[in-house]
Amino acid sequence: MTPDQFSASLQKNGPAPLYLFLGPEPYRRERCRRALLDAVLGTDADRESGFSRLDLDEIPLAAALDDARSLSLFATQRVIWLASAEAALPRGRAAAADEGETPGDARELAAYLREPTPGTVVVLECSRYGFDGDDKAKIERVQKYYAAIPAQVEFRPFSPESARSLAQSVAKKAGLQIGLAELALLLDATGGDAARIEVEIEKLSLLTAGKRKVTAEDIAALVPDAQATTIFVLVAALGRGDRTRALEVLDTLAREGEYMPLALTFLATQFRMALVAREAGLRSASQIQAHFNKLGARMWPERSRQIEQTVGAFSKQKLERAVVKLFEADRALRDSRPDDRIVMEEMILALTA
Length: 353
Prior knowledge:
The chain is an alpha/beta fold. The chain folds into 3 domains: 152 residues, Rossmann fold (3-Layer(aba) Sandwich), CATH 3.40.50; 64 residues; 125 residues, Zinc Finger, Delta Prime, domain 3 (Up-down Bundle), CATH 1.20.272.10. It is built from 18 helices and 5 strands. The chain has a 5-stranded parallel beta sheet with strand order 2-3-4-1-5, with helices on both faces. Helix 4 links the parallel strand 2 and strand 3. The longest helix is centred in the C-terminal third of the chain and has 20 residues. It is globular and about 60 Å long.
């Protein structure tokens, strides 16, 4: 089903006991997540005691389902979010052995669906793979493995047309006066990223206060340039383990004349903050923003969302390994007469191995 169909079904029929969220698009996935939490865990107190986030990179699916079966002493309603759903798929010899028969974890899943725990909603999230190119076969394998789950929601990337339509809708709702040329500039500067479009329109709306049209100078002053956006696209590609996309983004940065040590600094900061957030057990963008603001590191909501996405894409072990590799790359860039492009490519190859 699409995100819109999910929202309509949630309003009409209430939450299903089990969902599979598929695809890398974060904007609509975050809105579906919020809608689900609002439907199941209405208050902040309920969310504090009733929301759990687990990573299938770190625990087996059977253990997570055992957690879902157990009744909580502190919460009558629960949402259990299982990231890295693809990690539960059998690999190598195990995959060959299970060919033609139902794997053990899939049988556990089917058994849970026959008798789900009342008041508990389980969400399996696979945000690593896209729906096209090299990822198509991988995401189809994930869908096949979790075929017992009837409620599967696909989060496909925004097309340029849908990104423009979203920007126009958000601008109209915010009362922002923006021409077509300025809108195109905004879409270019944000890379068509839906979450960034919403944040930048909010900033422009506060600047103009609805009294005048947005100018190109306003966008240049307030909206981070496309290169910073491209660096975050590189973070997202590394998080998915998408080597091809990461190398393509690096090529874009090189052609745009990006200073590689600066790009590496941005990457290192992103991963260090994500590691801090994971170690602190922060679950949402608002918690991340509040945590770093309390530490004295002022943070825009958009940056906290970026860190939340990085936390969701990387396990703790992967974050620690990424920080080490970034340190090694930084040291290599400081060598006498280094080839910046080769150093960055070697870092990408190491992080996507």
